[in-house]
Amino acid sequence: MLLRVLKRVVFWSYGRTSWQWDVLCVLILAFIFLTPKSWFEWGKLACSPAHQNGLEAAQKLLIRTAGANSGQPDAQDIERCARKITEQPGLRVKSWRELKSTDGRTVAYEVDIEP
Hints:
Layout: H1 2-10, H2 19-34, E1 45-49, E2 60-65, H3 75-86, E3 92-100, E4 106-114
Antiparallel strand pairs: 1-2, 2-4, 3-4
């Protein structure tokens, strides 16, 4: 019985005027409107620092990426994350470089900053 119900749900074999159709539509709408936006933001910066130490920490910053990366972020994204991490609103970003894992995915950005 459970298998039959599951099969009907997966193949959407309920009639349009049935209460099962209405429940499936409500579930779909609930998923669309109640799913957090962050679940669908691939390639965004995590805005969290990687481990920093030594004298270079004052001039360099490592910013992790979240999820699969869909391309290089723009200067505003990098600067926003650097300001958030360092808590310095006047911070300026000079340049940044991608740090890739062994399989070629971008895992972090090394950011040169001016305090």
